[in-house]
Description:
955 residues; six-stranded antiparallel beta sheet; flat
Amino acid sequence: MTFLAFSGLANCLGCLLVAAIVFYSNPKRRLNQSYCVFNLAVALYSFGYFFWQLSAKEETALLWFKLLFTGVILINLVYLDFVFTFTDSRQQHKWLFRTCVVLNAWFLYLNASSNLYTALVPRHGLGYWPLPTKWFHGYLAFWTFQLLYGYFWLWRNYRSQTGRKRGEYKYLLSAFSIGFFGGATNWPMWYDVPLPPYLNILIIVYLGIVAYAIVAKRLFDIGLVARDVVVKGCALALVAVPLLVGRLLAESVRTLSWKGLTFGNIGALTGGVLNFSLAITLLRYHQNPPARLLCRFFLLLGMWESHELLLMMPQTPFSVFLHRASYAIGCWVILSWAEFWKSYGDSNGFASHSIRWFSWLRWTAYGMMGLCLFTPFVQQSLHFDPTMQRSALEVPGSAYPLFALWVLTAIAVSGWWTIRAFLQATKAFSKVGLGWVLGSFSFAGAAAVNYFGYVQGHWTLPLYPLLAMLMSLCLIGTLWHQLNRSAWKVSPQDFSLGVVSFTVPFLAGFLLTGSAWGQVVAGMLLVLFVPRILSEIHESVQTWVDKHVFWDKSGSLRDLQKFAQQAPRVQSMKEYLPELAQEVVRRAQVHSCSVLVYLEDLVSQPRFQTTYGRNGDGQIVPGPEWEGATEGALFQLLKQRRTVVLREEASLPHPGGLGRLDDAMLARLDPTVFAVAVPLIANEWVFGMIVLGAKLDQRAYFHHEDLKWLEALAKTIAEPLWARVEHYAQTMRMETTLHDAINYLKPVELIWTLKGLAPKDLASHYLGINLLTDARMFNLLSMDKQLGRGPTIKAIHLGKLVASICQIQQRVAAAIKGLDLITQVEDPLPPVRGDQRYLDRCLTNLIGNAIKYTAEGTIVVSVRQLNPQEIELCVADTGPGIPPESLSRIFDPFYRVPGKMSLEEGTGLGLAVVKEYITAIHGRVEVQSEVGKGSRFSIYLPVETGGALETPHAA
Length: 955
């Protein structure tokens, strides 16, 4: 295969991969479709290019060249289509594009009929090249026009862009410039100019730039698709690497016939397996700084110990270089080891290292790495044993003692500073922690001394692998001690999983090179364990990828979740909700965010709501409140579905038969206000919702990763927010406790205070605002006069009393919830026996409860004579009703119906007052209720057969 053929194959495979990723991310999006077709055209050109270069005969070359040139013609056409789609100018360039379609169709005909070239001839040892005709000169001019116009239009729009959009234009301009320049290097060979088109390989560079833009700049909003590919690739690599290592080891052992295995080889390989396993385990604790550094340390130490494989393998051209690289990795091991102790000390409240010392260690480590890698002064060469007793021996260079002195000095000084810091911490650390530190440094120093003595021939027993493993165990003990004293908890199962994640593929790779039975066992191991290993390490790998590759997105979301967790515990909801909405708008890059919280399980106005959005200048400002009808309908939909609802799904019939928004109501919700809504659920109750507007990028959409994050955010804030909701409700109940308790004794003054208030003031008072402070204080001062005072039984005209009270309560019902209060009084009615103050309070309490718990419908107050001895006073509502299990307790003092209705203001004294007062005047109270339909409270009063009639003076 020639280089040109290879370039065609590489370009073809790369374009197919990019096309698949772009199309998979959003197959319905016009931009993704256009870019996918563009890459398919390039792949078609590259596919023909590959086989054209492999052709040994003119006839075969001509067939593939026609396919190649078909791709060339299509590339520029779909390139223009993509440019016009990307710049939102398809309609503006409608006639130009149609003209280009016609002309390109004509050139496709000329290519098929061989009128663009007369024949193919071999040139300069680079295969068969065409002899152009006059039609080709015209096509080359047209090809250049299409290319330059598309580039000009991209450049023109690029100059007016800002922010993320400008970055997308920049990467596309760079990628297209390099890719088309690489392809254009083929034109000189048409005119017999001896300029080999080796730069055709630059098309793969174009693909690399686009791939980077996809990952780093969210080009086409498919960064999360690329993240999935990266995460899965890294997870597979964690399985493939030990598989490859095991296979290489088996090949080496077979070559040496087991003669080259020594105690040092076996110990180093065992230590490598252990350290790789520990590194895989610690990936899941990657957010903890010491764990992250120790994960890197174990990975590097495992790589260094695996260099023993090189000493067991036959000589290759790269053997010496790879062995020198292992020494450079050893320098990095020392540096990362010191960084772990520094981070460990910093995270536990004491300075573990001097800044000057650590700076010296870092720069000398970099110098030693260069000395080991690029010069023979530390490792001169490898001496290969022809007897195969041992494949190779290390030949130290002249600077090897200097290298050994630096390693021992670094270990000694690191140990001195760290132990000194521990001793200064006094009670901050236990003796167990100090023991792990001393053990780590002792085993590290002993392993280094043994290794240097063994390499230089002073010692014959290689104990350094065993000592290095003991050092690793001390480090794990230290980290275990630190993590379990913090919020991070380590389980032994985590470490066993890490061991399995490395050893199973390693063993499978070793067995694959053996007999047929060994291969069968290897296949069974891979089938049984690899899916489980991939699922277990997927989350850990994704955490690492998010931090190092997708750091901007993952960091923003982590910060928002941290804010969501902490803020509601220290702020009131009126302070917290606006801050939450602003943070979501800022970090999720959406037009607006609304947070709405309810205090009852009814479709009514939310008790708390806040909306923030972006103005024309992009600044985040407060937005308008929601309309009652649209907000209520959306909230009702969320309560039914109990999951995230997308705008495009809100009006569609649900498979479960749940509700949906009608088209008219959905049309009233602008996309910048409602694109996706997520419910807030706590204790199995939907008590609020978060509603996001469309993304700032008009072409972007809410994909599955966004929805997963929204659900996670809602779960994060639901519990603490619910605690705040309950706290608010309890505060409101406490605010009215004193009022109700006082009026348990003397209710009349408050009724008189309500008289004459405007409806809006009356509503505000009724909802708990402190307009009655003076009245409450008056009741407190007069309480001693009320203690022990019983009812004054007189004859009362009940019809007039009811009419006067209902006149005031009708204003309350209309001001608060727009309810109708209907009064039905028989005429004439005989007087009843009772105390007007008591009847005043009882009727006010019953009507007040009906208003409080009724969302819509009517409240009916009726008075009728049942028989000559008894008159019935009834208050009926269409509220939520009372559960059967609560009917027997609702008249108990301070009892409140559990569940959703308990969040309404109140203390549970209202019905107790009614029961107490009516019993005192020799009446009785009954209740009938059905959940979902309403309640009916009836008071039965005795008819007055004689005595003076008391004139009502109700408020």
